[in-house]
Amino acid sequence: MKLIAWTDRDGWKRTSFIKDDQDDDMAPQGIPQSVVPINELDWDAIKRDLHNALINRSLFGYEDIIKQRDSVNGAILSAVRGRLITLYKDRRAR
């Protein structure tokens, strides 16, 4: 079996296992392999937490984010990372 990455009609990257002797264009008919369903994340809470993290880091304008690039990354990670890890952990427990 080989893992093939492909892009669906809507632009989403997908991966599927297909037999070694199959052409790569058979990937959509293969055995899908996917990441956690990110639509299950609480996006309203993420938006709130990102907003608050930007405020806490005084990232009000473009000049601020240019001067404090690491703070931008930190704000994004603080809002998303924990929830994403929990989603993976919960999926593993199923």
Spatial arrangement of strands, main beta sheet = 1-2-3
Radius of gyration: 19 Å
Count of β-strands = 3
Per DSSP, the total helix count is 3
Distance between the termini: 25 Å
Q: Bin the strand percentage.
A: 15-25%
The residue-averaged pLDDT reads 95
What structural category arises from helix and sheet content?
alpha+beta
Total separate domains: 2
Order of helices and strands: EEEHHH
Q: How is the topology of this model organized?
A:
Layout: E1 2-7, E2 13-18, E3 31-33, H1 43-56, H2 62-67, H3 69-93
Antiparallel strand pairs: 1-2, 2-3
Which key phrases capture this entry?
94 residues, single chain, 3-stranded antiparallel sheet, 2 domains, 3 helices, alpha+beta
Walkthrough of the structure:
- The chain is of the alpha+beta class.
- The protein folds into two domains: 2-33, no CATH class; 38-93.
- The chain has helices at 43-56, 62-67, 69-93; strands spanning 2-7, 13-18, 31-33.
- A three-stranded antiparallel sheet has the order 1-2-3, with no helix packed on it.
- Helix 1 packs antiparallel against helix 3.
- The longest helix has 25 residues, at 69-93.
- It is elongated.
Please sum up the structure shown.
The protein is an alpha+beta fold and 94 residues long. The protein has helices at residues 43-56, 62-67, 69-93, and strands at residues 2-7, 13-18, 31-33.
